[in-house]
Amino acid sequence: MGTDPAPASASSQTLPTTPSGGEAKGREMLWAVVAAFGTYFCMYAFRKPFAVAQFDGLHVGDWDYKVIAVASQVLGYTLSKFIGIKVLTELKPNRRAWSIIALILLAELALILLAIVPAPWNLFCLFLNGLPLGMVFGLVISFLEGRRQTEALAAILCTSFILADGFTKSVGKLLLDSGVSQFWMPAGVGILFLLPLLGFVWMLSGVKQPSKRDIVARSERVQMTSQDRKSFIIRYAGGLIPLLMMYLMVTVVRSIRSDFAPEIWGSLGVTTTPELFSFSELWVGLAVTLANGFAVLITNNYRAFRVAILICITGSGLLLAASLGQHTGHLSGFTFMVLIGIGLYLPYVATHTTLFERMLAITRDRGSLVFLMYLADAIGYLGYVAVMLARNALDPGGDFMVFFLPMCYITGGLSITCMLACQFYFSRQQQLAYARSLAL
After folding, report:
1. Is the pLDDT of residue 395 over 70?
2. Where are the alpha helices (DSSP H) in 91-121?
3. Which domains does the chain carry?
């Protein structure tokens, strides 16, 4: 697979067992974990709190205001992902930290404008809010990729947005309950998190580059040209396409669960409280972090890749089981939301932490985790905007579970099929690479 060293030998490469860093290395990794987790956790304070407001009675023509609000922010976020495919893969490392700060400040300014500009014209402010935020994840993950500990670091990073999703909504709900208006609340939450974010970005700027042993184990991550990106997609299209299809479906349903959590809880007959959002995501984050962080213990890249595919299939199976349990009345609303969250985040986080990271390590091709993640995110969020607009056009006022539950069934079934196809492709590629190495 590729013109660089044979993937079979690269993926089976063994590393020296002697210590390489001891306590100093441990402190470096702890510093990186805290910096990345804190930075992205705080970023969610500028993105998600507005979703806890329901904007009852507000419409844009025949369209529900909140649906258009969510779509506006996600459209900006999606455009940011497409821009990031080029910008972030070509960005020099010394510009990453300052770029994060600039993007966050632009997002907060947009939230202030959201409160000042009258509705419905302020919907454009949410588009402007999503536009810079879409590139923050790529900047943060670029500090962590290409290391022997990347799965563990990335799993903890992904836990940040699972927990922050609930926690920042809880903060937003507290501000609403204390009398802050639903249009000023998002900017208020952002201001509360601005100072901690600056501290975590400062920490992030001190994270060291991957060592020589990291490069031997995982391949060097480099800036990519337009031709590099095109060549990579064409070369591995047979495995990338089903993987991207799975990620598209999971992103759509995960985003619906996140952005319309109050409506889904209401359809389940559960009264929302500030602590509900945090408590449900705490269980999801714990389960997903343990499952995906485990891959860091597997040194063989191809074996770790296969384990990640199994995690994705397991998550999709759990998604089907939870949907059936809710459909037949065997699950409480809280249990259903937790299991659905685990089922969605297992493949979602496995893609972030292991699938793309080990794919690069297997192929030893010119590429980066940021490129693959932004390619997947751009497709995923574009699909989410399309689904939400279609849903509002066809059934704008219906019970949300009537829409959400079938989406869970479809995503679970098709995702399993896609991951089996992905496994078949890369298994075949490994066999061909091994045959070529024997012929030589």
Report:
1. no
2. 96-116
3. 7-12+22-439 (1.20.1250.20)
Exposure string of 191-205, with b = 16+ CB inside 10 Å and e = fewer, is eebbeebeebbebbe
User: How far is Cα 85 from Cα 62, in angstroms, rounded to an integer?
Assistant: 35
Contact 177, 272 (CB under 8 A): no
Which residues are CB-contacts of 394 (< 8 A; sequence separation ≥ 6)?
none
Token readout for 401 is 């579970």
The tokens 């590729």 sit on which residue? Answer: 2
Q: Please state whether the peptide bond connecting residue 347 to the residue before it is cis, i.e. omega within 30 degrees of 0.
A: no
Structure-token match 């010119």, residue found: 366
Residue 414 φ/ψ, nearest 5 degrees: -70, -30
What SS3 class is residue 225?
A: coil
65-79 per-position pLDDT tens digit: 888 898 899 899 999
Crossing angle for the helix pair 65-90 and 123-133, to the nearest 10 degrees: 30
Q: Which helix (H) or strand (E) holds 54?
A: none
Specify the length of the chain in residues. 440
Provide the CA 148 distance to its chain's centre, in angstroms.
Answer: 21
Note if the bond before 120 is cis, omega within 30 degrees: yes
Q: Report whether 192 contacts 171 (CB < 8 A).
A: yes
Q: What is the pTM of this model?
A: 0.77
| Residue 366 DSSP label | S
One DSSP character per residue, 312-349 reads HHHHHHHHHHHHHHHHTT-S-HHHHHHHHHHHHHHHHH
Q: Are 80 and 130 in contact (CB under 8 A)?
A: yes
Q: Pick from 433, 403, 391, 369: which is nearest to 139 by CA?
A: 369
Helix (H) or strand (E) holding 64: strand 63-64
Q: Would you give the DSSP letter of residue 294?
A: G
pLDDT band at 231 (very low <50, low <70, confident <90, very high): very high
In 3D space, the residue among 23, 20, 122, 127 whose CA is nearest the CA of residue 71 turns out to be 127
Residue 399, phi then psi, degrees to nearest 5: -60, 130
Residue-wise burial string across 246-257, b where 16 or more C-beta atoms lie within 10 A, e elsewhere: bbbbbbbbbbbb
Query: Measured between alpha carbons, how far is 190 from 49 in angstroms, rounded to an integer?
Result: 9
What rounded mean pLDDT belongs to the chain? 87
Contacts of residue 39, Cβ cutoff 8 Å, sequence gap at least 6: 100, 136, 140, 197, 200, 201, 203, 204
